[in-house]
Design brief:
alpha/beta; globular; TIM Barrel; 11 helices
């Protein structure tokens, strides 16, 4: 049977997290049962025009109190990074403190991550790209507090490499542990299906793709074809285009 005649293979097993820093979007998706958690980062906050990091985080936490929420350290030296991580984790029981796997100089943060995780601080290891980073992150996190391993599958795909084999292998490596594999930098709805099919625990999704995802099961391809042609027709008429 041709793909166009089939339903999506999505099985609804991967947890959906909203990725963003616009307060209205975060609160809207927090009220949706099918969204299981939230993530953000300094770059998203800058894009959203956030000026006061702490005030924004604590304001969001007034509403997002049950679902897991990841806030990121932004220091570049390990000493200050540790101080920030210890402060962030005190803001709520549902917080996962995001720490990048390396700093901007390429220095590993895994010693710090192992220390904090062993103390019971929930960590989200972020900006993970390589197989070596994956293996060493798992070593650092195993036996510690519940944690997320955020592999930037979308950005890997942007380089022309297929991230699925590495993600699939990582699913097998973290199975049965306190580590959940998170598919980061979602680029399209198909990434959600991919993460779901390989058994990934979580995928973080920006609001623009979440809106498309909500419509996914209601659309058949013939109707999409007709809808597309209709939009072309309306736009051509509204523009007054003529050939003859």
């Amino acid at each position: 049977m041709f793909l166009g005649m089939e339903k999506s293979p999505y099985s609804n097993s991967v947890k959906i997290f909203c990725d963003g820093a616009f307060k209205e979007e975060m609160l809207r998706y927090n009220s949706d049962d099918w969204v299981s958690g939230m993530t953000t980062n300094p770059s998203l906050m800058k894009k959203a025009g956030i000026n006061d990091y702490v005030s924004f985080c604590k304001e969001i936490l007034q509403s997002v109190q049950e679902k897991p929420l990841s806030f990121e350290v932004f220091a570049d030296d390990l000493e200050t990074m540790e101080k920030q991580a210890r402060e962030i984790c005190t803001w709520g029981e549902n917080i996962y403190t995001k720490i990048p796997v390396i700093n901007s100089e390429g220095e590993s943060t895994l010693g710090l991550i192992k220390k904090l995780s062993a103390e019971g601080i929930k960590i989200n290891v972020t900006a993970v790209f390589t197989e070596e980073q994956i293996s060493k992150s798992i070593e650092a996190l195993k036996g510690g507090a519940p944690s997320y391993l955020s592999v930037f599958a979308g950005r890997i795909a942007d380089t022309g490499r297929d991230p699925v084999p590495m993600m699939q292998a990582t699913v097998d490596k973290v199975k049965g542990s306190s580590i959940e594999l998170l598919w980061a930098s979602c680029r399209e709805v198909w990434n959600i299906v991919q993460a779901d099919l390989i058994g990934c625990d979580i995928i973080t999704i920006p609001a623009s793709i979440l809106e498309k995802f909500k419509k996914m099961k209601d659309q058949d391809l013939f109707s999409l074809s007709k809808e597309t042609v209709t939009s072309f027709k309306k736009d051509a008429e509204a523009s007054g285009f003529k050939i003859f």
